[in-house]
Specification:
Phage tail protein beta-alpha-beta fold, flat
Length: about 425
């Protein structure tokens, strides 16, 4: 029998759509729990395997199986209350507005003594996003950050973290789902802190929904300082020991040319009102302003071919939206603004496209002891030793070490222990 994970799991209850609560803290009820958060996902997710061979049901005497009960009939959409704690006593309490809902149940049985259910969970906000009553149909004429807050507030009671934008955009919903609608605004938003840049991520964490600027996230101070070492004790100044690590260079020269991430690009626009044709150049160096990057220098690609100064074939063709949806709360003001573009199609989308690709140039996958205080969108500082044949002395690698943005967080709670895996990324290098 699998030992109960009561050391790290304080509460684990499924509320049936048909009646009773099913507690999974009984011995052998499940083998592990995986909780996953990502800057590329609109919901916190969890998955586990439940073994039904006679487990305790609240309000019942004795031990019977969920199948025998008749009141626990797992279909999908059941409420799940989960509370977990790491070794530092940091808790993740998925109850109330932060409760999970069963998204999918996959069941299998090999005999009449035991049945296995693989159960996937998601947040309530992700489900409410699908309801017609929450579809976006209103017109907004304000800063994008204000629009995002107004739209997301319809589907969540949890906090919403938003980096304020300078971009003001008149936009009208056309029966889109709220998360889909906000996603379309990500490449149109410019942060107040870095008004010459663009590009946002919409994602979910334990703390709530997030509409965060790439550049603002990169400019944060490190939340943790980690070290890859073979010693048992950490030196002063470090918070986490890295247990294992895997590096990945995600740079492809053809992709960089196609996307124009590390070279110069152009945007060609036509104004349908004035028939004016405009060509705008974009230098990739403009994306590296120093304090909005995680390292000192932009990666150099194809220097012997002069690629850093060349214009790639990534030339965008856009129509300006002059007169399509003019700004202003009244008809008179909209008529006065009808001869001006409502949005800067010449620059903002191209800048955002560069930042999206640049942010994923370098990847590191690492494993640490369970730390529930790290979330996607945080910055961590990692020190990695140089590759060396000298086993007695290991110098810190200047190239690999430094600040990284946390992209993915996975917490594994199992009988053998509690571990956290991080996918961390950055957009630049240290020479």
């Amino acid at each position: 029998m699998t030992k109960p994970l009561v050391h790290n799991v304080k509460k684990f209850t499924i509320t049936s759509n048909y009646g009773s609560d099913l507690s999974l803290l009984g011995e052998g009820a499940f083998s592990h729990i995986l909780i996953f958060q990502s800057i590329f996902d609109h919901s916190v997710r969890a998955t586990f395997e439940m073994f039904d061979s006679g487990i305790r049901i609240d309000g019942k005497d004795g031990t019977i199986s969920a199948d025998q009960s008749g009141e626990i009939n797992l279909i999908t959409g059941e409420k799940v209350d989960l509370t977990v704690v790491d070794e530092n006593q940091v808790e993740l309490v998925f109850t109330g507005a932060s409760e999970f809902t069963i998204a999918e149940v996959i069941s299998s049985a090999t005999n009449t003594m035991k049945e296995m259910h693989r159960i996937d969970l998601c947040m309530d906000d992700f489900i409410l996003n699908e309801l017609e009553e929450n579809y976006v149909v209103s017109r907004f004429d304000q800063k994008i950050s204000d629009t995002v807050n107004q739209v997301l507030s319809k589907i969540t009671q949890r906090p919403i973290a938003i980096d304020p934008t300078v971009t003001e955009l008149p936009v009208k919903g056309c029966t889109e789902r709220p998360l889909d609608f906000v996603t379309t605004l990500c490449n149109k938003a410019q942060p107040e802190k870095f008004p010459k840049s663009a590009g946002y991520f919409l994602f979910d964490t334990y703390n709530g929904l997030n509409f965060r600027s790439i550049d603002v996230m990169f400019s944060q101070e490190p939340k943790r300082r980690m070290l890859l070492t073979e010693t048992t004790k950490l030196p002063p100044g470090y918070s986490n020991k890295i247990l294992s690590v895997e590096f990945s260079n995600n740079t492809n020269i053809i992709d960089t040319l196609h996307l124009g991430a590390l070279q110069n690009t152009k945007t060609r626009t036509i104004d349908p009102y004035s028939h004016l044709y405009t060509q705008t150049s974009h230098a990739s160096d403009d994306s590296y302003q120093g304090d909005n990057n995680l390292s000192a220098d932009k990666p150099q690609v194809g220097t012997h071919l002069g690629l850093p100064d060349k214009v790639t074939g990534n030339i965008s063709h856009k129509f300006r939206d002059t007169g399509v949806q003019p700004t202003g709360p009244t008809l008179d003001k909209q008529l006065n603004a009808a001869q001006e573009p409502s949005f800067n199609h010449d620059e903002i989308p191209q800048i955002a496209a560069k930042r999206y690709y640049q942010s994923n140039l370098f990847h590191v996958n690492l494993k640490i002891d369970g730390d529930f205080g790290i979330f996607p969108g945080d910055v961590v500082y990692c020190d990695f030793p140089e590759i060396s044949a000298n086993q007695k002395r290991k110098d810190i690698s200047k190239k690999k070490s430094g600040k990284y943005l946390v992209a993915d967080v996975a917490h594994l709670i199992a009988a053998e222990g509690c571990y956290t895996k991080l996918n961390i990324i950055r957009d630049s290098i240290v020479e």
